[in-house]
Design a protein that fits this description.
The protein has about 270 residues and is an alpha/beta fold. It is built from 10 helices and 9 strands. Helix content is about 35%, strand content about 15%. The structure holds 6-chloroguanine. 6-chloroguanine (6GU) binds next to strand 5 and strand 7.
Length: about 270
């Protein structure tokens, strides 16, 4: 996959050289080019913004540099006739795992990182295939949102992650949040790893993990359950979880299985 990112702060994309994204680039799984929008300005001050028509606070990004940048990029010989053009904005459609998977199937993406109050709507209308938000809060620009989306997309690309299973088991891949995970030692700071995980009984482990995922999802994201097809046994777990006392923030009831060693109240 090829990715072009247009921004007035190309340095914001430097973290895309690290870790998973960096390795995917080294392996040729993804090719990321960041561009300075100001390279397509024509005035001495390299101006990219102006005051909003109709008044109001802040500044709006002028259309001409964006159009020039996108013409130059789309006209360069990429892997497709033109890239799918994405404008990150808090006013966009929500970015989800399914959306990440859809974008991961594209040969070529271009992200247009706006700043200030946004980009002139005419050039967005002319070029953007998608206006996308990463959540219900406001960032100062699209750069960090682009990094977020690039990481979510790239880890879905074949050859990007060592263990393909770690992608398919993720939270959201099955519509449920992932439950708690543990490694050695079996007891740490008086807290024991749930016995079932040490049992070697793969069926029991799979059932326990499903139950933990259901409990966590029912506690933290009950909205996710509405769209899922649940088995009868799943429904019992959800009903039990929802009938329990609301628990402390950041807890989802997993403490009943990962209780301190020596604690003997029922789980
Ligand atoms: Cl994609 N951009 C900005 N600036 N703020 C956001 C966002 C995107 N998603 C949530 N907040």
């Amino acid at each position: 996959m090829r990715v072009d990112v247009v921004t007035i702060f190309p340095a914001y994309l430097e973290p895309a050289r690290l870790s998973l994204l960096g390795k995917a680039r080294d392996r040729g799984v993804v090719e990321i080019h960041s561009h300075d929008l100001r390279d397509w300005t024509t005035d001495r001050h390299r101006t990219v913004d102006d005051t909003p028509y109709g008044g109001g606070p802040g500044m709006v990004m002028r259309p001409e540099p964006w159009d020039a940048a996108l013409r130059a990029i789309a006209g360069s010989s990429g892997p497709a006739p033109r890239p799918r053009v994405i404008v990150p904005t808090p006013a966009g459609r929500p970015f989800t795992q399914a959306y990440a998977a859809e974008l991961a199937a594209e040969p070529w993406l271009a992200f247009c990182c706006g700043r200030y109050e946004g980009i002139d709507a005419r050039v967005v209308d002319a070029w953007a295939d998608d206006e996308v938000s990463i959540g219900d809060y406001v960032l100062s620009g699209g750069e960090v949102a682009t990094l977020v989306m690039l990481e979510a997309i790239t880890r879905l690309l074949p050859g990007a992650v060592g263990n393909a299973e770690s992608v398919t088991d993720d939270s959201f891949a099955h519509g449920l949040l992932e439950g708690p995970v543990y490694t050695r030692p079996p007891e740490w700071a008086g807290r024991r790893v749930p016995d079932v995980l040490l049992s070697g009984d793969h069926g029991a482990i799979a059932r326990w993990r499903r139950e933990q995922a259901l409990r966590r999802t029912a506690r933290r994201r009950p909205d996710l359950l509405a769209t899922l097809e649940l088995h009868d046994r799943d429904r019992v777990v959800v009903a039990q979880t929802l009938a329990e006392e609301p628990c402390q923030p950041a807890s989802d009831g997993a403490e009943t299985t990962a209780r301190p060693a020596g604690s003997d109240e029922p789980g």
